[in-house]
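Table S2 (continued). Query chain:
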Amino acid sequence: MAQLWGGRFEKETDKLVYDFNASIGFDKRMYKQDIEGSLAHVKMLGKCKILTEEEMNNIISGLNGILTDIEAGKLEITSEYEDIHSFVEAILTERIGDDGKKLHTGRSRNDQVATDTKLYTRYEIEEIKIRIKHLLEVLVNIISANMETYMPGFTHLQKAQPVTLSHHMSAYYEMFYRDYMRLSSILERMDTCPLGSGALAGTTYPLDRQYSAELLGFKGPTLNSMDGVSDRDYIIEVLSAISTIMIHLSRFSEEIILWNSNEYRFVTIDDGYSTGSSIMPQKKNPDIAELVRGKSGRVIGDNIGFLVTMKGLPLAYNKDMQEDKEGVFDAIDTVKSCLTLFAGMMDTITFNKSIMEESAKAGYTNATDVADYLVLKGIPFRDAHSIVGKLVLICDKEKISLDQLPLDEYKSLCDAFDEDIYEAISMKTIVDKRKTIGGPSKDAMKQVLEIYEKQLKDLK
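Corresponding output:
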């Protein structure tokens, strides 16, 4: 059992205890960040004359060799080591001798793991942002192409008023754009480096923490060593942000699943993003959307689990914090795969435009505009509301839409109706009248699309 401690112990740790304590099985994925942090640390030690130039260069060469060999598959990270930190240090010492034992000068595993975790999380946030940006681009393409694709808007899952597919997709663009910006703001708040905090109380070595922070791309060092080693706010924020992304994906998936059903038939999912049934040959299932919806629960569980882990911890570092890794690794892996697959599905999906428009008509989504028509003719709104309700009842019994109802039926309830009612309640007229920014009209959506295109160009 390879470990970095043991001097004050008289016997070996029980194997079960060692295995329970070890994190190598999951923190090995941070090998690159661990080596990156160690390289910055040793360069700083050399700059501060804590190590000689020869010792510094020997350690740097050894660390770079380890990184090269891991990535080339020549060096395997095995479970005989307690964690990725002990693995790297042990291999380094094995390769370069006693100089390797000087790597850990002026730092603790506490600030080391805090630094590794921040570096890893920072990298993965950027990876998630790339995927969100791609999904935003897919949505912008759909928005641009469907400003006159009419469909029902819903409240309470009941058809309410007509909108366009562009307007509907714009709502999801807004959600995912907020997700992107939320991740960006997390990066700003976590832009301080714990390296040099030591176990909790700093160190007596004359470290240049600003230098090592800059080498690692941070704006500066953490200003309190106790907080530096025990802060996991950024993990909590990332898990929360990822949970929100997954909620948005889940809501979107739910609609795609509904729209793909035989009852809706609003969309046809590409064969590449569908599966069939082992027994029912006619089936074409929206499995990607269903899995995304299902995986959202797991990610939310990762979030809640870590909140509960952190809620009662005293300062400073506690071993409980090792539990940050598996949950955040799982959440990151899950959201990345979900974003990639969902964007692919949406990029290849077919919208059945005529069915969407007929659904809007059949659902009496223009009923409110019939009432507005009467109000403009001088009928009090409450009376107009009652008249239109009776018209809908007639249409419902005859299984027709309001634009199919004969004019004499309209006039039987109110003489104010005239031939212009049909133009007034057409999908195009209704939508195009809603010109205020945020509305579904083509004019409004053109303004919004221009803003979206600029936003995408500005995203970094």
